[in-house]
TrEMBL record:
It holds the Pfam family PMT_2. GO terms for biological process: lipopolysaccharide biosynthetic process. InterPro entries: LipidA_mod_glycosyltrf_83, RgtA/B/C-like. Its main location: membrane. It comes from Candidatus Yanofskybacteria bacterium RIFCSPHIGHO2_02_FULL_43_22. One of its GO terms (molecular function) is pentosyltransferase activity. This is Glycosyltransferase RgtA/B/C/D-like domain-containing protein.
Length: 454
């Protein structure tokens, strides 16, 4: 394929990616099932309350207690869509544009550091993976987040290449905005500083130690400056200078049960029930913990607030110290699952197929399975496994790459490890999607290396 034909093909794929999503929005207009997920109602409630002047709250009636669980960027994005364009559904159209632009940025990165062919296929595959199609038309944070992330990666690569201040400032501002979109990014700054250190050490960027420290300090200062207004808001309202109250909640109710189950040879559900009973008992006994600021809708919602965070975190630390080996096993297991969880099931979730989770490997292998869903799952998981093999091959061929490509791959590997690690038990296509462009690009690069060596 010559360059002109490739550009035409790329344009067609990008346009088709947008039109398919626009078609989904129009075809299912007026229906709830495709556009909403478990968290969608919360984001829409936050946006609607901002519009109505009730503040940042998801409460449906007075006194509208402020919310500490969610961060402001995505509800603000939904509010602006409603305020400027007259409809929350407009946000889904914008998300469709964002994911197409993300695919184009992925193509630009891949073309410069790998090959046109790898870049072309990476962009096309990313646009049409099952979960990419699904999540981009949902009221969820993933699409804006991955768009901001891929833009920050592209701008950082430009900075490493030519050291222009505009790219440095763009990346430095985007990183805290990522944290304000999804709290999982609140620790992401060291990843980019490590990338800078690697590039400086191997002379991919001309920095002496003093300049490196200056740039690192400036990035930290900008990161803190962007987050500070939200941190002050939380301190004034709740007494905690923290980004969100979600971390201890997810740790205790999602990550701890997995390690607890492994340590005691019980199911995840059984472990969750035991730990829920324990925390309820401690909650009742600890009167101070129940004096939380915020909506008293239910005891369980109290666990989502800052006031319960210390209790949840202390119990999580207790189990960390009691079962350190099992927490390590749990984390490694879920980091692997992060790359292998299928996205096709989200379509079945949307359309109420209750038998969707019954995937019997024996029935699939012997073609005795009568439901088409397990075969679709098997095909997607096999494809993801091949990409994972490609990722491993990229790691193994790392030192055979030229120095510039090594510098970029180091950043990609750090990001893939970062997000797979911090996703924990939540490892799924829903969490992988934010780095799926990198996963596809690096995976195809590794497979291409294998092909050229055979």
């Amino acid at each position: 394929m010559n360059i002109l034909s490739e550009k035409k093909a790329l344009f067609i794929i990008l346009l088709l990616g947008f039109l398919v999503r626009l078609g989904l929005i129009m075809f299912f207009d007026g229906e709830h099932r495709l556009f909403h997920d478990g968290d969608s109602a919360e984001y829409l409630a936050l946006a609607e309350n901002i519009r109505l002047g009730h503040g940042f709250t998801w409460d449906k009636s007075a006194p509208f207690y402020p919310n500490s669980f969610r961060t402001p960027v995505y509800p603000g994005f939904l509010f602006l869509s409603r305020f400027l364009l007259g409809s929350y559904k407009a946000a889904l159209v914008i998300q469709s544009v964002l994911i197409v632009l993300s695919a184009y940025l992925l193509y630009l990165i891949g073309r410069e550091y790998f090959s046109r062919k790898i870049a072309f296929w990476s962009a096309g595959i990313f646009l049409f993976t099952p979960f990419s199609l699904n999540v981009s038309v949902k009221f969820l944070t993933q699409t804006p987040f991955l768009s901001l992330l891929i833009l920050s990666i592209w701008s950082w690569i430009q900075f490493l290449k030519n050291q222009r201040n505009k790219y440095f400032l763009l990346t430095s501002i985007l990183l805290p905005v990522l944290a304000l979109t999804r709290p999982i990014a609140q620790y992401i700054l060291p990843v980019f500083i490590l990338s800078l250190a690697y590039s400086a050490y191997f002379k991919q960027i001309n920095l002496n130690p003093k300049q490196f420290l200056k740039i690192g300090f400036m990035m930290c200062a900008i990161f803190a400056a962007v987050l500070t207004p939200w941190l002050i808001r939380n301190y004034n309202l709740f007494g905690y200078f923290k980004l969100s109250s979600i971390t201890p909640y997810q740790l205790y109710f999602y990550d701890v049960p997995d390690a607890y189950a492994l340590a005691n040879d019980i199911s995840y559900q059984e472990a969750g029930s035991i730990l829920r009973t324990e925390i309820d008992r401690l909650w009742i006994n600890d009167f101070a913990s129940r004096l939380s600021t915020g909506s008293q809708v239910s005891d369980f919602q109290d666990y989502m607030k800052f006031a319960s965070g210390e209790l949840l975190m202390s119990r999580s630390r207790y189990y960390f110290s009691a079962f350190p080996a099992y927490f390590l096993v749990s984390r490694v297991k879920n980091m692997t699952k992060f790359f292998l969880r299928d996205g096709i099931r989200y379509w079945y979730n949307d359309f109420g197929r209750n038998s969707r989770s019954d995937v019997n490997v024996y029935k699939i292998a012997t073609l005795k399975e009568k439901n088409v869903f397990p075969y679709l799952v098997a095909v997607e998981r096999l494809f993801l496994a091949v990409l994972l093999v490609g990722l491993i091959l990229s790691v193994s061929y790392f030192f055979k790459e030229n120095m510039a490509t090594r510098s970029i791959l180091a950043l990609f590997f750090l990001l893939l490890v970062y997000f797979s690690f911090f996703s924990g038990i939540m490892a799924s296509a829903g969490f992988r999607i934010i780095v799926e462009p990198l996963f596809i690009l690096v995976g195809l690069n590794g497979l291409n290396k294998l092909r050229t060596c055979v």
